[in-house]
């Protein structure tokens, strides 16, 4: 029954997305939120159900292309360097695609899966660029994500407090295993809540806490404190998940946001933002008192090996892993799709891949030519986001807080993916990150719309005066 419910939601949402593609993004957020608890109710909890959001995404992309005039050229015109880099990446990935397609019987499935995984992110960037018609529409999208997943994060609290112990949809026991982190003289029971794993809950908790702060710094009046409260709640859930790499996203975000305002010459604003950021971060101390200093969770996050573990992870999963992968797989890599997160669910023979971080996975799959092309794309995207954001912050536009916050969110995710890219096995998370990049690139257009409306109102007032 629950399998048919989940598939029915996927098909129904895909049809609605095809009719109104902008609705599809919100529907995809909603489906991604309920897919894990519903999957836990399906006998056997099949792994392919993680792809239920893919039809919704494909439908909104096809519909967006059909109903948006100049879908590609509208993006390529303001960002020609990104467009050229994306087109150059296609032939550079051809050798890796040929390797995986000819590896053995059925290996072409990995090729298609790899193409889908990479294309999903970049198509989402263009879709995000066209999504919002104005700044209010962008805020509503962020609000929908934060509120929907804010509700879902309550599952982490329920699991930690052992409320509703008979609920199958809580935790990961239904998958036949429990997530445990071993420390020096203690163990940490990692919390998944309504989500399928602590990684997924941790990412959503970090995203809700960060994006709620983005809404807070761009809001006025009492609404600002409502978003701060939601951010504080999400941080509590984040600390319960037991994933340091997700917890790291918060300080990286805060440092990146302050640095953006500092570089833009808005130092007074940077100091004010620091004070606002300290409010939800105070939930860390409240949670610490709640868990007690002797709890395994607090020992894990404040342990003596924390600095060593972070440095070791960045070094081991960064340059060293990329170099080792090159030495093992050669110039053209091991084959497209073989190291893509979630590829193991295809059940077809493939070479073993030990790579965990995004850089080492990309080296394995794309080889040197593909890596250089991918780096060129990401470099142009990062530079465009940085320049767009600094211009908005320096001009003190109404869009500046959103641009700065979403750029800092992007930087925080890059830092996390450098350590581990497994979270990208979730098509929703991969596409959502692409969408957020796209909306940042669209902010100059949204700011122009906002200024035009202000000028139109001023003209109307003058006409009636």
State the strand order across the main sheet. 1-2
Could you tell me how far the N terminus lies from the C terminus, measured between alpha carbons in angstroms? Answer: 65 Å
If you average the pLDDT, what whole number results?
Answer: 85
What is the global morphology?
globular
Helical fraction: over 70%
Class by SSE composition = mainly alpha
Question: Could you give a short account of the major beta sheet?
Answer: 2 strands, antiparallel
The residue ranges in which pLDDT falls below 50 over 5 or more consecutive positions are 304-308
| Record field, number of beta strands | 2
Provide a count of the helices: 21
Q: Beta-strand percentage?
A: under 5%
- In N-to-C order, the SSE pattern is HHHHHHHHHEEHHHHHHHHHHHH
Q: What does the radius of gyration come to?
A: 22 Å
Overview of the molecule:
The chain is mainly α and 465 residues long. The chain is built from 21 helices and two strands. The protein has helices at residues 2-19, 21-40, 54-67, 73-76, 80-92, 94-101, 108-131, 135-152, 154-160, 198-218, 222-241, 244-247, 249-263, 267-291, 296-301, 306-317, 319-329, 358-395, 400-419, 427-441, 443-464, and strands spanning 180-183, 186-189. Strands 1-2 form a two-stranded antiparallel sheet. A hairpin with a 2-residue loop joins strand 1 (180-183) and strand 2. The chain is globular.
